[in-house]
Amino acid sequence: MVKCRNCGLDVADDLENCPNCGSNLLKSEEIKEDIPDNSAKCPNCGADLNENHSFCPSCGTKIESEEKESRTCENCGSTLPENTLFCSICGTKVKDTPKATKKICPNCGVEVDPGTTFCPECGTNVFTGANNKQELVSTQSFAEKINLNNIIKPSIIALVVALILSFIGLLIGFSWFSFIIAIILSAGFFGAAMDNEANAIVFGLIVGLILGLLETPLVEFTYGAFVAGFYEGFFGGHLLLIVILGVIMAYVSNMYLKESIRGATDNFKGML
């Protein structure tokens, strides 16, 4: 009796091939003496190999270099050649481990590394599509949402625009309506630039308050002190009205007109 070098079955001496796995018993015996004890094994039939073998002398299987990542059978632990579907030793179906691939954020389209749950760019959950940053902002109080750094620059720009519009309105005879029109247009347009409604309300309050305080001085600058005195005595100040309109227009613009105003701005930039 001889032992099959591939599957370990005891086989009669007069047989050339193993009745269990079909390995050539004679070839296995012929190469036995030439192979050192510490030689590698064929991943297909288990025959001993030396470092010069590119193909197994027993079954002809191509021998992959050690640099390539090898796979092993989950059942018996045998080394498996590339593209093997079933283990040649125990017949277990080979389960390929899928390569980790980058995911694409469903919100902003940024590539996200495998294993990452939230997009580092916008905070969106790459599995559910929920925006973590938006959920966090929605739970903040009104005071926590206010960021003066995001308010000051738009407020200055909007105030300059409001003063110019008011001056033009006074020149063409709109009187105190010039300030009403100016605050509606400036607060409504620039209020869309705020990142949340709390900043928009503070922005509208600042622009409306300063414009209201400058109402009489602007009339005096345009027509002189006499007309300014008559204007103030006849029409009175409109500070409270201008502030209220500024807050309302900034809030409405930020909540409901943001996308429309930004779209119009982008189209205008594209025409330039």
TrEMBL record:
Q: What is the lineage of its organism?
A: Archaea, Methanobacteriati, Methanobacteriota, Methanomada group, Methanobacteria
**Coiled coil feature spans:** none
Q: Domain DZANK-type spans what residues?
A: 4-60, 73-123
Task: Enumerate the transmembrane spans.
Answer: 156-185, 197-214, 234-252
The record's Pfam families line, in alphabetical order, gives: DZR
Q: What is this protein called?
A: Double zinc ribbon
Q: Which domain of life is it from?
A: Archaea
Question: Keywords assigned by UniProt?
Answer: Membrane, Transmembrane, Transmembrane helix
**Keyword Repressor appears in the UniProt entry:** no
